[in-house]
Amino acid sequence: MSDLMSAQGACLCGAVTISTSTLNQNVGACHCGMCRKWGGGPLLAVDCGQEFKIEGKELVNVFSSSDWAERGFCSKCGTHLFYRLKEPSQYIVPVGIFDKVKNLNFDHQIFIDEKPDFYTFSNETKNMTGAEVFEMYAPKT
What we know:
CATH topology: Metal Binding Protein, Guanine Nucleotide Exchange Factor, Chain A
Number of strands: 11
Radius of gyration: 15 Å
Number of domains: 1
Strand content: 35-45%
Order of helices and strands: EEEHEEEEEEEEH
């Protein structure tokens, strides 16, 4: 079984549609303060790599949330569309935006050291601290 699959989805109002042929079936949770502020809780997302198509781009607003990443959302309904690493243009997408995806596996959590005490997932996952994430993804200067 391949870890990658095709998927399609749309924002709440349907004005922006997205598709990918490289959706990774492994779902992760990000507990960083920015993700929790952005969506009101942990971001549950999947890696879509670089093969990511957007229709309705004129309605996508982008917020540069750090030197190396940005967040996109629909300017009409506010739906969160993606978190994108600027280099190498890697799209991480809220899993709930995709229609009819099956056989997903919740297997990792990042910024586990920033997770509030009021919730806990029961799944056994690989956990990374914020420092470990930065070491892995932040540009080296």
